[in-house]
Amino acid sequence: MNDSTSASTAVPVLDVWCELQCPDCRSALDDLRALRARYGDRLELRLRHFPLEKHQHAFAAAQAAEEAAEQGQAWPYVEAVLGRVAELDRLGEPFLVEVARELGLDAEEFDTALIDGRHILIVDADHAEGRAIGVTGTPTYVVGGERLDGGRSQEGLRERIEEIVDRLLAEQPA
After folding, report:
1. Pairing of strands 13-18, 44-49
2. From CA 84, how far away is CA 50, in angstroms rounded?
3. Residue-wise pLDDT tens digits, 41-93
4. How far is CA 30 from CA 23, 33, 95, 107, 154, in A?
5. Mean pLDDT across the chain
6. Is the pLDDT of residue 35 over 90?
7. SS3 sequence, the chain?
8. Which of 30, 164, 169, 173 has the most crowded Cβ, counting Cβ within 10 A?
9. How far apart are CA 46 and CA 65, in angstroms?
10. Torsion angles phi and psi, residue 114, rounded to 5
């Protein structure tokens, strides 16, 4: 561990309440990429699941994203699935396994995870926590104690997130 980082100077966390069958979340990808490019490891982007009932494959997709995280490829997987929402709509769970295969992940393990439901509790816990804090749609962001709803409009959200993160970083002890 180098001297500039310690447990007392934890980086700010941006919780991204997302649903992988959501066109608005697909639109938010550019903002998330820009935030990762701007802050790198000075900001932790945390994927939180909020599958919506109106999307029949969203719950399975959230479980698949957890399996991707377990295999060390959460964000590449999320971006790959969100980039092809129409295929997920049309093909469902076989598409989720195919994306894993395309990314070089253990596709058989994805298939098994979707059957045995090993990630259901994580998805359910995220959804319950989201409801408890007032998340009603996706994407919704929580950073610095502030909830920003991107489901209605993405306009100006990245700038607002940057303002909050910049403030949080400035408040950290040197």
Report:
1. parallel
2. 18
3. 999 999 999 999 999 999 999 999 999 999 999 999 999 999 999 999 999 99
4. 13, 5, 23, 27, 11
5. 91
6. yes
7. CCCCCCHHHCCCEEEEEECCCCHHHHHHHHHHHHHHHHHHHHCEEEEEECCCCCCCCHHHHHHHHHHHHHCCCHHHHHHHHHCCHHHHHHHCHHHHHHHHHHCCCCHHHHHHHHHHCCCHHHHHHHHHHHHHCCCCCCCEEEECCEEEECCCCCCCHHHHHHHHHHHHHHHCCC
8. 164
9. 12
10. -70, -30
Query: Can you tell me which residue has the tokens 């092809």?
Result: 84
pLDDT at 156: 85
Q: Which of 171, 122, 107, 124 is nearest to 144 (CA)?
A: 171
Q: pLDDT, tens digit, for every residue of 82-129?
A: 999 999 999 999 999 999 999 999 999 999 999 999 999 999 999 999
